[in-house]
Each structure stands twice: as C-alpha cells, then as structure tokens.
Amino acid sequence: MFDAVSYSLAKRAKSLLSGLVINTDKDWVGKVVKNLGAPIAAGDSARLGDIILSKLSVDTDKDWGARLIKNLGAPVDAGDAFRKGDALLSNIGVDVDKDWGARLIKNLGAPIAAGDALRRPAHVDDVTFRDIDEKLDWSLSVGEITGSWWGGYFSMITRSSYADKAVEKYCLGDYDHLILRCVKGAGVLDGVNMSIAFAVVDDAYFSYMNDTEAASDFQIRKVIAGVVTSLASEAVDLVGSTMYWTLFSVLGSTLKGFRADKAVAKISVSDTSLTSGSAGVYRFFRHLYLRAAASPSPKPVGFFEVPIVGDGSSGNPFRAGMPEEIVTDVVLGKRNLLSVSHSSLIPCDLATGKPVHGSALVRVFEQPDRSAGLRGLPTCLGAVRGLAGVRELTRGEAVARARVMDSKLHMCDLVSQRLTPALLKEYVSWREALGVKRELIDDGLMAGYIQEGKGW
After folding, report:
1. Tens of pLDDT, residues 20-57
2. Of 15, 238, 372, 410, which residue is most buried, by most CB within 10 angstroms?
3. Percent share of the chain, pLDDT over 70
C-alpha cells in the first residue's frame, strides 16, 4: 500500500545537505549563505566575523596593489612593520654595505669622532687627512691643498698638519724637494733663477735632490727663520734628467730619506726643531703621495764631533765640515771622492735659525751600494779622523753627547727601547710637552717607533 507520509519524509530527507553529493561548483547567484556555524577543520567555510588577522596564516608574499596598510601600532619587535613616522636613521640597524646608486648624502654635520663620514668641504678646518694615504693632486680637488707659483714652479702643501708622516714621489735629480712639518702658512720655498732664496720665510724640513752637489746629491735639510742647514747627505751622484723613486719620512724626532731602496733609508738624522706642520712638494706636484711614516734607518759605522761650516744660505748652508777631495768628471761634473753618507745633529736657535753649538754630532753610515768611483769607506773615515777639531766618539758617548747638545731628545729618539705602557705614556707626554697636539700623535706609530733602531 502506498504510504504518503513515509514517501514525503523520504523525499524531504534527500534535500538535506548531508544527503547531497557535491559533484560540481555552485554559483550562488548573489545569494548569501547565512547563519553558518563556527569553522573547525581546515576546509570549513569562514564566516565574516572569522576573517581577522589573528586567524590568518601568512604562507606567501602579498602584493598590496598600491593599497595602504593604515593605522598600524608602534613597532616593538625586530620583525614589526615600520610606520612612516618610525623610519628614522636612529631606528635603522646597519648590517650590510649600502650602494647609494650615485645618490648624494646631503647636509651632513661636521665630523667629530674617528669613524664619522667626511664632508666635501668648502674649507677643511674640520677635516684632516692624517690617517689617509692619498695623492696630493687628489687632495687638491677637495680643498685640502694650498699652493702658489714662485719662480716658475708650483709649490703645494697640505692645509692639515701632521706630526708623523711620509711623502713619496718620483723626483728629478736636478732640484726636486719633498716637504714635511712646514709651518707659518702657505709659502714654502721661493725659486729664483733655479735656486732657493727663501724669500718667503717658512720653517720646514725637506729632502733635496741636486745633481751639482759634488757626490752629495741627495740631502735632508731644514730651513728655520730663513736659515738653511744641511742635516744629512748620501754619497751619490745623480743625473739631473733622471727620475728617482724617493720617500721622505718624519717620525718622532727621526728624519729619514729613502731613494731607490724601499727597505732601508739611505740617510737618517735626529732633529727637534720642528714638531708638526704641513706636508708637500716643491716644483712638480703630480703623483706625490702622502704615506705613513717609514722605517728602518741605516746602520752607523762611525761617530764624530765635527766643526760646523757654512753661512746658512741655500748655496752654503750650515753643515758639518767633512773632508773633501774634489775632482772634475766630464759627465758628472765636480765630485768629492771622500763623500760619505752621513747625518749631522745641529740644534739651532728657533728665532735666528743659527746653530747653538760650534760643532755637529756626525754619524757616518754604511753604504753597500757605494760607487766604485769614490774612495773606499775606510779611507774616508781616516780622512774624517785627520780633520782639525774632530773628535771620534764611541756609540755610547755619541748618544750621551746628543742629549747634552739637544735636551729635547728623549732616549726613545736615540736608541731602541723595550716597550711598556708606562714608557709609551711617558714618551707621548714628552712630545705633547714639546708642543705636539695629542690628536696628531698615533699611539700605534709611537709603539713601533720606541722599539725600532734610529740609526744610532
């Protein structure tokens, strides 16, 4: 018998979701599925109230299509998103080099600490280049160099002051100069008819090449109050038209001249007249480099106290009266066959530039590359001993005599010392007392200087 009630219930049951088989997508034609239960399993449909950030899983990058994320809270943890107001330099961690893509960093403040970025200054009063090895013509482009034309040649010195520095350049053998510790302004050396007249009186140390110096063609000189003193010379004949690699270094109270050989200085001398100043070059300035002060010094083979000769002019500087045997060579011109590589300790009066003693303390250096055309070193030493008024000294006597002749010399300026923190502090304080600004003294350089031989 047909049961109408059962049939109706069975038909109704087939219309329930649980009885439906999902075998295709369903277009809801704009209708809303209402009153859903809370989603539980991963595939459950979310209700409008369930779509909140705390319930979203981030499983891919999201392109926001130029839309804004607005009203963010203040970032707290390292991965929190920045708001526009939070993007300050003080909040940015620097963990990688940054390529600025040729963009400028503008309106920088004045550098204070050692690691602060340099500005390109109109004036360089707040910028120094003491710790940088740079070409002098590069330094000119950033306003670090001042220079003038004198006598047809261009002299250039740095605006910055250095206590310990070296300058390096290929120099011509007929009058090139490298300059260190130049003080009193922009003038350096005044060239007049291919000679130095020092019409602009500046104090300076300089290495000096001149192929007419009778086999003493490479020298270290100083000019104080317009008075010239030759402090050291290498027994060598140079050719005026030849370029020679040269480095002039000042560290502590030790001046060194390197030529051709980068390992060991050709000449070394102690002097305390100048404690700091500009670096530069007289004559041809291009391709001159500022370098860290260099070592080591040559070894001495004899110590002498020798009378001083000369009048302090550029052509006849004050110097130790060393032996001479002058001959004329058809190629090299006048040569002193008794020329030796030597240095002279000649302290001077800073007001007049004149020597304060009548004698110089001379060190004669070994010279492995000595020219065969010059007399042998033993012959030259004998000639020194034979000069009137000469006294030969032992090394110990020479060191002691040096401190008597120049009370500004510290033992660290003369002989190698065992480095201790107390000695380093003492020597740095000594230099400050002589007028060297503490900011110009590099403790690392001083530590090496204390331990190295000074050529005494």
Report:
1. 666 777 777 878 778 888 787 777 777 777 777 676 77
2. 238
3. 78
Give dist(CA 345, CA 416) in Å, integer.
18
The token duo for 230 is 């030759």
Which residue is it, tokens 């002691």? 400
Report the predicted TM-score, pTM, of the whole model to 2 decimal places. Answer: 0.69
**For residue 189, what are the β-bridge partners?**
none
Calculated CA dihedral for residues 405, 406, 411, 416, nearest 10 degrees: -80
DSSP annotation string for 20-68: ----S----TT----SPPPP-STTSPPPGGG--GGG----S----TT--
User: What would you measure as the largest C-alpha separation in the chain, in angstroms?
Assistant: 158
Domain 136-451 has CATH 3.30.110.70: no
Phi then psi for residue 201, to 5 deg, are: -85, 100
Enclosing H/E stretch for 382: helix 377-385
> Residues 51, 53, 55, 61: is their CA dihedral positive or negative?
positive
